[in-house]
Amino acid sequence: MLRKLSDEESRSLEDSLAQNGVPFENQEEAEKHFFTLRDNDLAVLQKLNLEHPDLRLDFKAQSLKRLESFYFDCYIDNKITIQIPKDEFELLLSQYMRQVFVSNDMAEWMVFENDFAEGRYELGILYGYGSGGSEHYADGLSNREDNKARTFLYDRFMLYVPAEREKEVQ
């Protein structure tokens, strides 16, 4: 059941939300920082792709399954050893998923200013239908109760794909 927040709860929530993002002097500075970070993250994944050719990171939906399986092989099943800490790899997974949206013409990269704190920014994507977000899709991926099949990223991506494009993005 939903209830209206008290004034104190509302202020506390706004204060908490105002802490989101990284402070920058302006949008251009934030974009330069975050787009460099994005490019570096995608380069790490490209290197991993070269080291593990079975990943076939081609920015299609099926590659999300392969990358998520690789994640579980590394951090849960201990079949593969890599030098990337688990929490960093989860960030890489989120960046890759964002790029899958962009590569399939479903979104574009965007740096968002925090609605609750001027001068604080986050990297995310603006979906084709006008809604944007800076969701970290893979945070706590191995602990998700709704990920028994270990295909959370693929399943989440496919929720956004129009039926007429399903074959195209595979």
Structure description:
The chain is of the alpha+beta class and 170 residues long. Strands 1, 2, 3 and 4 form a 4-stranded antiparallel β-sheet that branches. Helix 2 packs across helix 4 and helix 3 runs antiparallel to helix 4. The relative contact order is 0.16.
Short précis:
The protein is of the alpha+beta class and 170 residues long. 48% of the residues lie in helices and 11% in strands. It contains six helices and four strands, in the order H-E-H-H-H-E-E-E-H-H.
Strand tally is: 4
Shape: globular
Write down the domain tally. Answer: 1
Percent in helix: 40-55%
Could you name the ranges where pLDDT drops below 50 across 5 or more consecutive residues?
A: none
Radius of gyration: 18 Å
- Number of helical runs? 6
| Average pLDDT rating | 90
Which class of secondary structure composition applies to the elements? alpha+beta
Distance from first to last alpha carbon = 39 Å
Task: Describe the secondary structure blueprint for this structure.
Elements: H1 7-17, E1 22-23, H2 27-51, H3 61-75, H4 86-103, E2 107-113, E3 120-127, E4 132-133, H5 152-159, H6 166-169
Antiparallel strand pairs: 1-3, 2-3, 3-4
